[in-house]
Amino acid sequence: MSAIADEIASQPGMWGLAGTLAESAADGLPAAGERIAAVGCGTSLYVARAYAALRESRGRGSSDAFPASEFHSRRRYDRVLAISRSGTTTEVLRLLANLPAGRRTLLTADGDAPAAREADNVVVLDFADERSVVQTRFATSVLVLLRAHLGEGPGGAVADGELALSEPLPVEPAQIEHVVFLGHGWTVGIAEEAALKLREASRTYSEAYPAMEYRHGPISLAGERSLVWVLGSPDDAIADDVRATGAAVRVATLDPLAELVLAQRLAVALAEAKGLNPDHPRHLTRSVVLS
Questions:
Q1: Rounded to an integer, what distance in angstroms lies between the CA atom of residue 164 and that of residue 287?
Q2: Residue 1 has pLDDT above 90, yes or no
C-alpha cells in the first residue's frame, strides 16, 4: 500500500481526535463576531476558503480567505487564521512576520516549525501529520476541527468517512480522462481541493467550479470520457444537463469531507492505472520554501 493510501484510510480516526481538540483549542480560534481572514497555500488555501464560507454562512462573522501571497494588507481584521501543514511555507511565514502581533493564529502539524514562532496562538494537529507530499488527512482534520468549533460535531462525518473507504468508486479509472467537481457555498472549497488531488496524484485533467457557473462555458468540455461530481448545487437539474453531454455523473450522498475521501481514493486509483507513484508526484515537494 502507498503511504498516501494508508493516510487516506486513517482519516475517520483522525477526525475524532480533531473534534476533541476543538474544545481545548477554542481560545485561539476565531470567536463569534470577529472579522477574520483565513490564509494558506495550495491545499491549505482551499481549506481556508471552505472554512471562511462555512463560518460566514453560520452567522459567526465576516470571513474572507486569501492565498498567503495575495493578502489584502489594507484591510483590518480581528484575527488572521493561517493554515500550514509543515509550518515552513515561505509565503505564510512572510505574511505572519509582517502582521501586527496579537491576533495571529496558526494551524499546523508541527508546533516547532518556523511559522509557529511568528504566531500568537498555535493549534497543533501533529496526530494528522503525513509522510506524503500530497495532503489528505491533515487538511480534512483541520476542517473537522474548525467545523467542530462552529458547533458541527464530527460524528456524521466520521460515519460517512468509513462508508467512503468501502464504497465503490463512481467510475472505473480506465473510463475517464477528465473530472469536474462542482460545489455550492462552502463545498466550492472542497471541490477545488478534490480537483487538486487528481492533478497532483494522478496528473488527471480536473477542474472545479461553483455549480451554477458550470453551464456558463465549462460544460462545453464535458463528454463521454468525463466525470462530473456534484458536491453541492442549488439546482438539481444540473445533473440532468451534464448527463445530456454523455458524461458520467456522481451526485454526493455523503458528508462533503467523506466525498473528498472518495475523490482521494479515485486519485490514487487513477495514478496506479497510469503506472504512476502517487507518493512521489513530479515537480512537487512537501513544502514550498523559497530563497
A1: 28
A2: no
The answer, yes or no, to whether residue 48 has pLDDT greater than 80, is: yes
Ranges of H-type helices in 64-202: 90-98, 114-117, 137-149, 155-166, 187-202
Percent of the chain as helix, strand, coil, to the nearest 5:
45, 15, 40
Eight-class DSSP state of 93: H
| Edge-to-edge order in the sheet of strand 36-40 | 63-67, 36-40, 79-83, 104-108, 121-124
Report the alpha-carbon distance of residue 109 to residue 125 in Å, rounded: 5
Would you give the distance in Å from CA 129 to the centre of its chain? Answer: 15
pLDDT band at residue 200 under the 50/70/90 scheme: very high
Name the band, by pLDDT with cuts 50, 70 and 90, for residue 285. Answer: confident
Say what the pLDDT of residue 161 is. 98
Are the beta carbons of 53 and 192 closer than 8 angstroms? no
Residues in the chain: 291
- What is the rounded CA–CA span in Å between residue 209 and residue 195? 10
What is the overall mean pLDDT for the chain?
Answer: 97
Residue 192 — pLDDT band, cuts 50, 70, 90? very high
- Answer whether 163's CB lies under 8 Å from 239's CB: no
In angstroms, the CA 187 to CA 251 distance is 13
Q: State the Rg of the chain over Cα.
A: 18
Query: What is the rounded distance in angstroms from the CA atom of residue 225 to the CA atom of residue 246?
Result: 8
